Every structure is written in structure tokens, then in C-alpha cells.
Amino acid sequence: MERDTLELKIRRQRKKLRQIEHLERLDRPLTDEEIVKVERKYRIREELFDLLAGLSENANNSASLQEDDIVTDSSQAADQSPSLSAGLQEESHNIQKRGNNPVEAKDNSASGKEEIKAKDGQELRISYSKAEKDTLQPPESKKAKKETSKSTEKSDKVNKGNSLQKTLKESRYQVFTLEGHNDVITAVEAADSILVTASRDTTVKVWDLSTLTEIQNLGGHTNSVTDVVILDKEQSATVASKLQWTDAFNYIVVSGSMDCSFKLWSAKTGQQIKSVYTYNPVTKLAYHPGQDIVVTVSDGGKLELWDIVTSVNIQSVRAHDDAVTALCLIGNTVTTSTSFGEIKVHEIRDQSLICLFASENLQSSSGRHLTPRYIRSLAATKDYIFYGDDGINIKVLDWKKGLVRKICNHAGDFGITDALCCHDKLLFASAFDLDTGFGSLNVFQVEPDLQYLITLTDEDTGHILDVKYCQGADSIITGGMELKVWRKLTSGQSVSEEDIIPDVIPRLIQQAIDSDMESDVEFSESESEADFNGDGDSTASQQNVGWLSWCSLL
């Protein structure tokens, strides 16, 4: 089969899988026709694997033929060009002749003189000052001296990264799957030994990480719960005192939902402390402890500040024209992203929102303009914003300069980064491979320099939509198609064959592709949707489905 034909068929199969992935995200019951499409994903993947194998075989055959052609052409060229061969032999002879009397150089640094001694014993002595010697040095030598300290500093950073990578690579993890939710887990949050999860099944659950058991089921929302936040013990005590909440508790949980509300709960008793109507579906939320403020964003582009004690709406701004997909709060800095790839940075100042940055005309570090695409995840440090989208790379935005660089997050040709989490000096990133349908977790070092470390996968994990690190339990929590706890084994614990050993994927060490098109899949409005009822060769115009009509994948 011709290579172009194979690539076209692969493109169509991936497009079908992309449509199925979109259907699985919908926050509504699927129609009978949509259910049939989703059920075909396993057969589509089998067909895709066969096509990829054929493409690989085709490439190997082409490479073999090219090598044969090169050998034949080289032989013919040698036979038909005796003068060229003779010329090369003569040049080789001249080089050897010039090398019959080599010289040896010896630097006498004490006297500032250099001796050049020939083989026949004759000595040539050239005297010059140190300033003259510096002038005679090639520019490369001077540059090398100036950059010695920088090279040493870079080497130290690499060594530190390698040391951390070695430590993590030698660690072992036990993976536990927690059962309880009846639908996709949309958000996870952990503090000490407490885990709180939100789900599309409208519930919030509280888990004990030490026993891996469910201890509370918080029911009260009437639509998908999209995000959860845990106030630590000190913050919880402060808020409870201001609310005059006297029942026994240890943590306060805040949950946001598509039912246009956020609620406060007691994690210990499971009681609802209060509910605040927001007038807009809440897609993400955060808590600012210094000012007792709950920050919410909506599918209509609103960014709002709420007083957690009085429930008063302090400020409401239309920060975006599209649905807000991610929210990150670091100190007084609020970072938001949208379904159309826009990023904004606001500062909370005197209980007001001041816009500091809007992502217009973003450029890569090489000067290329970046095409805005659906942003699915955000994480931030003081200086950088990390964001994931429908592409194989994580983007690192220096928002003060408006520059973006990329780090590879997927070994395959197509991937999605749905979840990011910064903890201490580490960045945890989910990676979903569309071809296989499996999810994995990559760990990067953020400081002193960004560097890939390890990958965790149990070959049984699907889509990961959120990830958090719990220092108290020394565990990584992932939520999505499954709720899993990746617990690091301590020294002295028994090791079993079922334990997960971290991998190091060579592809993720390489430099990321600096291109607008990182995948061989791109959907355009002029292209028809894949035909699920046939082999995909039909060119009949069909109605676009959801945001797939405009989405092009990076």
C-alpha cells in the first residue's frame, strides 16, 4: 500500500478516535447513535495498529531501496570518473608529503615564550608579551574562557537533575484503585491524610489515605462537580470561627459545580456549612486564605471574587469571551485559560482584579507565532506558567516576556495533557495517548532547570483529568476514568511483582518539536467528519460535531 494512502487512513482512524474522546467528555447522556460510535473505539484502535505497522514496514522498505541505490550510484561514479579518483589520490599524496616534517609545539608559560621544534633538531624561538599572546589567540578561545563558569554551572544543574532522576528511578510504587464514584472523577485534592474527590456523578467524597477508605459522601449538588479545594487546619479554624460554626471538624472543603453554586462542607462530619449561588456554572475555583476570598470562573468567561464568610460577590469581571477551562492561584496572582487558547494573568489588589497580562501574539523562543488552541490544564510558579492542551508538548510561558518554550510530554504522535501540578520543585503532568487509549504520568524537575525525570504507568490507566501530590502520604493522586493512589514505597517495605517501576522514556529527553503542527492529525472546517458507518473514504459533507469543527490539534 502506498505511503500516502496509509497516512490518509491513519489520519481518518485518529480522527474517529478524537471524536469518540470528545463524546466521552460530554456532560450529558449519550444518544443511541453516539453510544454505538463509542463502542467501536477498540476495533478502530486495532485497525489503527495494523495501519501503523504497515507504515513502518513501508518506511523500512523505502530505506532499504535507497541504500541499494546509493551503493549502485557510488560504484558507477567511481568507474566513470577516473580523473576524479586520480585527483583525490594525488591530493592524499600531497597531504602525506606535507606531513613528513611535522612540528612539535611547546609552551613555556614561565618565560612567556613558545618554542617550536622541528624533527631535525633545529629550534625556532619566538618571543612575545602576554598581551600580544592574548591578541594572537583565536576568538573561540577567549569565548571559551568567558563561558567556563557558565558551563560549570550548567553541568552542576545537570548533575543535580541526574542525581534526582536516579533516586526516583530506583523508587517503587504501589498503585491502588479507589471505587466509589459512578462517573468520571473531575478533580482531586489532598491534605495530610485526607483526600477529597469531585465527580460528574454530582457527589463529593472524602477518603482516608492511610486506610484508602471512603469516610464521607457529600451529596447536595444537582449537576457535575467540577472542582474542590481543602482549607488546611488553620484556615479551616479561622473560617469556622467567623462563621460561628461550632460542630466538630478538622477540614473545610469547598466544592464548585455546574449547578451554579459553590458549597462549604465539614470533611469530618459531612455536613454542609453553607451554599452560595453564583448565577453562572462554576468550572474551576480556588481559595485565597489571606483575604478569605473564593475565586470562581465560569463557562461564560467570568472571573469572580466571593467573600467566603458573608457570601457577598466582591467583584465580577468578564475576563474572557469563552469558557474558562483552568484556574491557578499563586499568592495574589490569578491565572486563567480558555477553550480558545487564551491566557490571562490578574492580580488581586485591595479585593479588586487588575489585569497584568493577556496572551496576544505569543511567540516561541525561536520567534515563531503560536496558534491558540484549547487549553486543558494550568500550573504555575512565581515566574512561569505551564499549560497543557491537545498537543504532545507542555508549553512553558514566561508571561513577563510573552515567550513560550516547549517540553515534550508524549512519546507518540498524538497526545493530550489534561492535568498539571507543581509541588515543591517538581512538575507532575498527565499524558494521554490517543492511539493506545492509555494514560501515564510524567515527572519533571522545575528548579534549578526544567528537566524530564521519570514516567509512571501501570498499563491499565485511562484518561487522567487531574493530579495532585500529597506530601503527608507520600503519594500521587490521579483522577479521571479511574481514581488511583500511587504510593511510594519506603525503605524496608516488601517489594512485589505488582509494584510499579518508573521508566525513563528517551523521546521525552529530546528537544520538543518547535512547530505549529506537532501531530499528523489536524482537523479543519473544510474536512468532513469521519464516516463511522464505513471505511472513512466517503467524502460526503456531514454536520460538524461540537468544537471539533474548529479544533486543530497541536
UniProtKB/TrEMBL annotation:
Q: Where is the composition biased (Basic and acidic residues)?
A: 104-123, 130-159
Annotated region (Disordered), positions in chain: 64-164, 519-540
Q: Which UniProt keywords apply?
A: Repeat, WD repeat
Tell me where the WD repeats sit in this chain. 178-217, 282-316
* Comp. bias intervals (Polar residues): 72-86
Q: Compositional bias of type Acidic residues: which residue ranges?
A: 519-534
This chain's protein is named Uncharacterized protein
InterPro entries according to UniProt: WD40/YVTN_repeat-like_dom_sf (IPR015943), WD40_PAC1 (IPR020472), WD40_repeat_CS (IPR019775), WD40_repeat_dom_sf (IPR036322), WD40_rpt (IPR001680)
